[in-house]
Write a structure and sequence with these properties.
Layout: E1 6-8, H1 11-19, E2 26-29, H2 38-53, E3 58-64, H3 75-91, E4 94-100, H4 108-113, E5 118-121, H5 128-132, E6 135-139, H6 143-150, E7 154-158, H7 166-172, E8 177-179, H8 182-192, H9 213-227, H10 232-247, E9 252-254
Parallel strand pairs: 1-2, 3-4, 3-6, 4-5, 6-7, 7-8
Antiparallel strand pairs: 2-9
Helix pairs in contact: 3-8, 9-10
């Protein structure tokens, strides 16, 4: 990429881009762009949680964001993951909200065996299952799982092929649970179902979590636009100064 300014979630995004040899001149930390919907999703999550809690002791949200054309682990692993979680769900009187990109037949066998403990949600881009849940499980460094951690949900990342960026595991998300075996999923799920929600060290992922990411982006763009008659350099400097005054000096990063 060769942008003059690149809008990013947080410090981790800059670390990833730098490691990828990104050539943008500067980065503006605005937070997660989809957080504009967070207020409504939180309200809907309260309703969903109340509904399931009438019958079940716990809610487990399992996000499969990989079973599609971008599949990078096979169907057998996906099926075994759901089966493992379902076994724990049955034993603990829990309901699984299986959040997928689309309805896939690969889970039909497991769903039929645990029909009292699994519901499928194929809605697009929804965090409602996660925000309603007691524990959230995802594949690799799943975006929904990372976002769930911003709201202090108990999370488990399943990394069977050990492909997650080492810097993410060791630094950015070091206090999030990541396991590489189904046995690890079972153990951590049982433990986390007994815990309370916990705060995570999430400022590197998104330092704001306030539903105003798009507002910050729009204001920055307006500041640049209003000063373009003075030249690109002056316009960017003006927007940077205003942004720093409102959000902090650490929210603008320059590519040295």
């Amino acid at each position: 990429k060769f942008a003059d300014r690149f809008f990013i979630w947080g410090r981790w995004h800059y670390s990833l881009l730098s490691s990828s040899n990104d050539k943008s001149s500067g980065y503006v930390i605005t937070g997660y762009i989809g957080d504009i919907y967070s207020h409504k999703m939180l309200k809907d999550a309260v309703i969903l949680r109340k509904y399931h809690k009438k019958r079940y002791s716990n809610i487990i949200a399992l996000y499969d964001t990989s079973v599609f054309h971008d599949l990078f682990f096979n169907n057998i692993i996906a099926e075994n993951l759901l089966n493992t979680v379902a076994e724990v769900a049955e034993q603990s009187n829990s309901i699984i909200i299986l959040k997928t990109k689309f309805r896939s037949g690969i889970y039909d066998k497991v769903i039929s065996c645990y029909s009292n403990n699994i519901v499928v949600d194929c809605s697009k881009g929804s965090l409602i299952p996660a925000l309603s849940a007691d524990v959230v499980i995802g594949i690799e460094n799943s975006t929904p799982v990372s976002l769930s951690a911003l709201y202090n949900k108990r999370v488990i990342n399943f990394n069977p092929s050990n492909t997650v960026w080492k810097y993410w595991k060791s630094t950015i998300a070091k206090d999030m649970t990541m396991v590489e075996t189904l046995g690890g999923v079972r153990r951590e799920l049982i433990n986390k179902l007994k815990m309370l929600d916990k705060p995570y060290l999430n400022v590197n992922i998104d330092p704001f979590v306030d539903g105003k990411s798009q507002e910050r982006m729009a204001q920055y763009i307006c500041d640049v636009s209003n000063q373009l008659h003075k030249g690109k350099g002056s316009a960017l400097a003006y927007a940077d100064t205003n942004y720093i005054e409102k959000n902090g000096v650490d929210k603008i990063i320059y590519n040295e």
